[in-house]
Automatic annotation (TrEMBL):
Gene3D superfamilies, per database record: Classic Zinc Finger (3.30.160.60)
Protein name: C2H2-type domain-containing protein
Boundaries of every C2H2-type domain copy: 262-284
Alphabetical UniProt keywords: Metal-binding, Nucleus, Zinc, Zinc-finger
Subcellular location as annotated: Nucleus
Listed Polar residues bias regions: 292-305
Biological-process GO terms, alphabetical: mRNA splicing, via spliceosome
Family annotation (SUPFAM superfamilies): beta-beta-alpha zinc fingers
Annotated InterPro entries: Matrin/U1-like-C_Znf_C2H2, RNA_Proc_DNA_Dmg_Regulator, SF3A3_dom, SF3a60/Prp9_C, SF3a60_bindingd, Znf_C2H2_jaz, Znf_C2H2_sf, Znf_C2H2_type
Length: 510
């Protein structure tokens, strides 16, 4: 079992790395509609992962099972016995045995998860194709990555309702939905059409699509919370009797002077005596057990008011669900009204195209940015904006190298050289190469030491001076013959060793 304290530390680190990746995504400049939507979905996914880890971290700090307290007590007891490192070595042995048993485990599995959450680059999207993009699979071709609505199925379902005066074209249907923000939904329909079960099914289908579309196009907005607020507002207005036109119709459908509605069984009874007998039936008792107590068995109500209604008859109407769906659909249509207008304009535009032009339009990539006058400058600017959240080194093509190559060459390991003014070299290969570079050679000359192979791997000034003194004492004077072995050439092409060249230059002969 992993250490609870280590799991907490690792979870904190993962949250911080997710936050940095989220900041990189949100700081990208606005691009086309498709890319902005992809970035929002990636940001939403990362926010979900952060929330999940924050909940895990909260549970660990709550320590309901006592594992964290037990581990702290174990470490404290080991320190109290005078053997401070006994528990440390026991845990180290356990970790070593685990890695010897599973040598092929990835060094940083979280980096793979982070790279998957960030998503594919534009080059990878071109390589795999649009059909491999999970964001592209969320939308139909008619929706065009959330730019337009696809309400053809809902329009067909509307035209198949009973008791409608005339069928609506798609453009007229969009106009009806667009104008629904100021009043009730489908005010053109007669009341008898709204009281049918088919109309309730139609509203449920329309609400499901609009809710799904809002979630897909606004991944950073809590649509469910907004829907809950709209539903609570409807409940409040329903209880206060501000929503009319539904309860009265429930009684008139019987064609009698009175009617009693059973909320648990969702059924209307013509007489009070029949309703009273129904309350003792097994069918009613099972329906009450399945439903919420506040919405099922309550005192009956009649049209003539002989039996007083309860204090809060929240679901006393047969058409409560229809009224509620109408209210929540209106709350979705208001923010979607600009998209409905854009959808109508797009449909009109496509009606004016020939069949050949429609085919060519489908073959073109969606949401391609319009060519600008300074297209070359914009291309260079796009190439300069390289997405590199892991801060990987750039390759020969100016793009980040693959992560597996980064781990293979150990480029995440730092090597510091004091002789080079505390310069840091990433990776063993760069560290070995720097001993022959001018920066290290200049540092060695500043110390009065030759940059020979004897001083390879020496990075501290104190160690270099100590090694030079030791070599002098052992009579290894050959390491300081570098000055006499070095050859220099004057302006006339004559070659001298360094010492002779310096002497002649001081005398003014060169």
């Amino acid at each position: 079992m992993d250490s609870v304290l280590e799991v907490q530390r690792q979870t904190h680190e993962e949250i911080e790395r997710f936050e940095r990746a989220l900041a990189d995504i949100l700081s990208q400049p606005p691009q086309n509609h498709k890319q902005n939507l992809i970035n929002e979905h990636r940001a939403s996914d990362i926010l979900g992962r952060i929330t999940q880890r924050a909940a895990t971290l909260h549970n660990l700090y709550q320590d309901e099972d006592g594992a964290r307290t037990k581990e702290i007590d174990l470490i404290t007891a080991a320190a109290g016995d005078g053997d401070d490192l006994s528990e440390f070595y026991a845990r180290l042995k356990k970790i070593t045995d685990h890695h010897l048993k599973y040598p092929d485990l990835p060094a940083d599995g979280f980096a793979i998860e982070l790279e998957g959450a960030i998503g594919m680059t534009e080059e990878e999207e071109e390589e795999w194709g649009v059909e491999q993009d999970p964001i592209a699979l969320l939308f139909s071709g008619e929706e065009a990555f959330g730019k337009y609505l696809d309400l053809y199925a809902n329009q067909t379902q509307y035209n198949n309702l009973k008791h409608i005066d005339k069928h609506l074209s798609y453009l007229h249907y969009l106009d009806v939905l667009s104008s629904a923000k100021d009043g009730g939904l489908h005010s053109e329909l007669p009341k008898v059409a709204k009281m049918t079960k088919e109309y309730e099914t139609y509203l449920a289908s329309l609400h499901a699509y609009l809710l799904s579309f809002s979630k897909r196009t606004q991944p950073l907005v809590n649509v469910d919370e907004q829907q809950q607020e709209a539903s609570d507002e409807f409940e409040k207005r329903w209880e206060e009797g501000q929503i009319t036109g539904w309860e009265d119709e429930a009684m008139k459908q019987n064609g009698a002077g009175e009617g009693v509605w059973c909320g648990a069984c969702q059924k209307t009874y013509a007489k009070q005596t029949v309703f009273d007998a129904h309350l003792k039936s097994k069918k009613h008792l099972k329906a009450v057990a399945r439903s919420d107590p506040s919405t099922s068995a309550a005192a009956p109500t009649t049209e003539n008011g002989d039996t007083p209604a309860p204090a809060a008859p929240a679901r006393k109407s047969k058409y409560y669900n229809t009224a509620r769906l109408t209210s929540v659909i209106l709350s979705l249509l208001v923010p979607l009204n600009p998209i409905i207008v854009e959808t109508r304009s797009n449909v009109e535009r496509r009606f004016s195209l020939t069949s050949r032009e429609r085919e060519l339009e489908l073959e073109e990539p969606v949401n391609m940015p319009a060519p600008a006058a300074n297209g070359a400058a914009e291309e260079e600017e796009e190439e300069e904006r390289i997405y590199n959240p892991l801060k990987l080194p750039l390759g020969w093509d100016g793009k980040p190298i693959p992560y597996w190559l980064y781990k293979l060459h150990g480029l995440g390991v730092e090597y510091r050289c004091e002789i080079c003014s505390d310069a840091v070299y990433m990776g063993r290969k760069n560290f070995d190469r720097h001993f022959q570079e001018s920066r290290h050679a200049f540092g060695m000359r500043a110390l009065g030491l030759p940059n020979t192979k004897h001083f390879h791997e020496i990075t501290r000034i104190e160690d270099a001076l100590a090694l030079a003194e030791k070599l002098k004492q052992e009579g290894r004077q050959e390491i300081f013959q570098n000055e006499t072995m070095e050859e220099l050439e004057d302006d006339e092409g004559n070659v001298y060793n360094k010492k002779t060249y310096d002497d002649l230059k001081k005398q003014g002969l060169i």
